[in-house]
Amino acid sequence: MSTLYVLVVISICVASFFLAGFIWSVKNNQYEDKEGAAMRMLHENDYQGEEQQLSNIKQSK
Question: What's this model's pTM, rounded to 2 decimal places?
Fold first, then answer.
């Protein structure tokens, strides 16, 4: 039974550590850019295509 008490105390300490880390990250604006990476991932090929088109236009002149 004493082992159970020790494990409960340890789990509460670990949970409070992760909660403190989450609160710290929210206060320091770690989640400020909510769409940037997702949008870059979806439109990455479009940007590369535009660069290639511009280089092709410059080479043809």
Answer: 0.52
